[in-house]
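Comment thread on ticket #2218

A.B. wrote:
> Attaching the input chain for the structure job we discussed in standup.
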Amino acid sequence: MGRTGPLTALARAGDEPEAFAVFYDEHGRDLVRFFARRLIDAEAALDLTAETFAQAFAGRRSFRGRSDEEARAWLYTIAHRQLAGYLRRGYVDREGREKLGVQLQPAGAEELARVEELADLRGLRASIAAGLETLSAEQREAVTLRVVAELPYPELAARLQITEPTARARVSRALRALRAVMTDPTTSGGEA
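C.D. wrote:
> Ran it. Output below, let me know if you need it in another format.
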């Protein structure tokens, strides 16, 4: 049985590598925005986007989907793995690009500014700052030490002179409160 309708660009790329450029054009901008909004770092977003597409290109023949939605889901599965690895390691693993022999030039100031604009990082930073102001002093300090200073929980607990479970709970509550403030459409500028 054949497919109904035309093949997605990703599905065509299995036999026609040049079709991958169409797939990149369809999803590149949104993927950069995806990474930039999660990392608030334009350069890391560009690196992770390049690595995600390199991994997707290398594995394009394994894609078995039939629709654009399935192609997007497949790409974002790779993107989520790249993001998780980045957050775990603190750097971009350039394995996919190295396998393909792709060398990237460092992003210029103009390109980084464009990514910041595309992902509205200035607005996101302002929202985070406003959200932090809604937290108690203890929660703000705990989340700042954990997320910004990247202290491990044992060190965070020692610094705050609390138990490790209390430190974990404090950070968790603070992040939950931040998420609620930042996703609540009725809040603006941190006011509830």
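A.B. wrote:
> Thanks. Noting for the ticket: The radius of gyration is 20 Å.
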